[in-house]
Amino acid sequence: MEVFDFSKIKSIFLDMDGVLWNGKNPIGNTRDIFTKLDQADIFPVFITNNSTRTPESYQEKMAGFGVKIKPDQVITPAVAASYLFKKNYSKDVRIYVFGSQALKDYLKREGFTLSDEKADIVLVSLDQEMTYQKVATAMHLINEGAIFYATNRDHILASENGWLPGGGVMVSAVETCTQKKPIVIGKPQPYMIEIAMEKFGLDKSEVVAVGDRYDTDIIGGINAGCHTVMVLSGVDTKESVSSFQKQPTLICKDLEEFAEILIRQKNNLDPINRTDKL
Ligand SMILES: [Mg+2]
Question: d(Cα 34, Cα 45) in Å, to the nearest integer?
Answer without folding.
Answer: 12
